[in-house]
UniProtKB/TrEMBL annotation:
Top-level taxon of the source organism: Bacteria
Protein's name in the database: DUF2007 domain-containing protein
Domain DUF2007 residues, every copy: 4-65
Alphabetical list of Gene3D superfamilies matching this protein: UreE, C-terminal domain
Organism (species): Flavisphingopyxis soli
Length: 77
């Protein structure tokens, strides 16, 4: 199963909020690099990524934008 990134967050707490929000909508999501974010005081150097399957990417982004958890994409120029 391949996964794609839906968003990045500076800490694991924000990423888990997003993951559980997606799960409540029936979208399976995973947090990557959560442990790396706290290792050796890395802090904001390594963001926590929220990943979904490619088929769920558009729906996941729409849910997160609608709920204010993700900024809308910039309009194409």
């Amino acid at each position: 199963m391949s996964l794609v990134e839906v968003a990045r967050f500076p800490n694991g707490m924000e990423a888990e909020i997003v993951r559980t929000r997606l799960a409540s909508e029936g979208i399976m999501a995973f947090c990557f690099d959560g442990g790396m974010n706290i290792a050796d005081g890395a802090g904001l150097l390594i963001p926590v990524r929220v990943m979904v399957i490619p088929d769920d990417l558009a729906d996941a982004r729409a849910i997160l934008v609608d709920t204010g958890l993700l900024d809308p994409p910039e309009a194409a120029a």
